[in-house]
């Protein structure tokens, strides 16, 4: 009798505790953190689902997923990151904080990272991805109090985002009111023969306090002449890259290069 009563009380205590916690912990994307019915849970919480962004700077072979370490984390969080295609075996990607290991591609491909906050982000690399294949991603944060998962389905085509072109140079064409802009493709993009890139240029100038901007249509060459510019005026030039068929997103713009045309 005594034992049964005791089990019953404990059972209801546990159910109540779990229900209370779950009702307070439903996250915005609908994932439900799992909470162990342990002691000591009062002041400390399980992690929130990680806010994951994935992109492919090297279509189709590789994608990166990144998420911030939550601020003011009391309990250390470990992350388990897995991905699988339908009916395929589950593959692991091994998350690491970006301040410890060098990034596999230029820093520019990490959205929101500018070096001001080390340890701010986790990164994991998804390799061997197949074209036009739906993958399921599961990134789960685990601490002593429980776990929470970010679940996402993607095809690598959806998340293409090259890095910006590098080595952008801008020269005045001698004797002409033109600028010659040259650049190199982003080195992180691994196969430009099978999966070519195209580029866009945008240039800005200021005329008596009024800003002007021109963005050229995409083209495949890695140089371009900007014609019919004004003597003595300064131009600010940027280049971005995108997959030739227009998959996914364009890269960020390269850092601006400023050139002033000769007066005559
Ligand atoms: C770096 O990131 C922080 C926080 O997002 C932002 O406030 C700051 O302006 C950024 N600095 C640069 C140089 O982009
Ligand atoms: C996500 O991964 C975690 C940790 O491996 C696992 O416990 C959980 O069941 C997974 N969720 C789904 C929906 O596969
Ligand atoms: C960019 O310029 C540097 C220095 O001139 C050079 O070492 C590097 O190979 C260039 N990168 C590309 C992709 O052309």
TrEMBL record:
Stretches the record annotates as Disordered: 27-51
GO molecular function terms noted in the UniProt entry: cytokine receptor activity
Keywords (A to Z) from UniProt: Glycoprotein, Repeat, Signal
Signal peptide: 1-24
Keyword Hydrolase: no
Pfam families on file: fn3 (PF00041)
InterPro entries with a match to the protein in the record: FN3_dom, FN3_sf, Hematopoietin_rcpt_L_F3_CS, Ig-like_fold, IL11/IL27_subunit_beta
Keyword field contains Transferase: no
Origin superkingdom: Eukaryota
Domain Fibronectin type-III: 164-263
This protein's GO CC annotations: membrane
PANTHER family cross-referenced by the UniProt entry: INTERLEUKIN-27 SUBUNIT BETA (PTHR48483:SF2)
Similarity annotation: Belongs to the type I cytokine receptor family. Type 3 subfamily.
Stated name of the protein: Interleukin-27 subunit beta
Organism: Salmo salar
Lineage: Eukaryota, Metazoa, Chordata, Craniata, Vertebrata
Gene transcribed to yield this protein: ebi3
């Amino acid at each position: 009798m005594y034992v049964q009563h005791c089990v019953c009380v404990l059972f209801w205590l546990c159910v109540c505790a779990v229900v209370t916690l779950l009702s307070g912990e439903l996250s915005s994307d609908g994932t439900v953190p799992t909470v162990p019915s342990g002691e000591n849970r009062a002041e400390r919480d399980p992690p929130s689902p990680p806010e994951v962004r994935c992109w492919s700077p090297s279509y189709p072979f590789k994608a990166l997923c990144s998420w911030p370490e939550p601020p003011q984390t009391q309990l250390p969080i470990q992350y388990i990151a897995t991905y699988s295609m339908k009916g395929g075996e589950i593959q692991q990607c091994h998350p690491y904080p970006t301040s410890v290991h060098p990034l596999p591609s230029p820093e520019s491909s990490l959205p929101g990272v500018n070096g001001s906050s080390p340890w701010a982000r986790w990164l994991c690399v998804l390799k061997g991805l197949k074209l036009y294949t739906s993958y399921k991603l599961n990134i789960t944060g685990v601490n002593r109090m429980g776990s929470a998962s970010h679940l996402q389905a993607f095809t690598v085509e959806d998340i293409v985002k090259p890095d910006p072109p590098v080595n952008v140079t801008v020269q005045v064409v001698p004797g002409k009111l033109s600028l010659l802009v040259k650049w190199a493709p982003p080195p992180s993009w691994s196969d430009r023969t099978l999966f070519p890139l195209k580029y866009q240029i945008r240039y800005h100038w200021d005329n008596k306090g009024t800003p002007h901007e021109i963005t050229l249509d995409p083209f495949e060459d890695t140089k371009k002449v900007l014609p019919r510019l004004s003597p003595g005026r300064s131009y600010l030039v940027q280049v971005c890259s995108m997959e030739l068929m227009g998959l996914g997103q364009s890269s960020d713009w390269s850092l601006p290069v400023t050139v002033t045309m000769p007066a005559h």
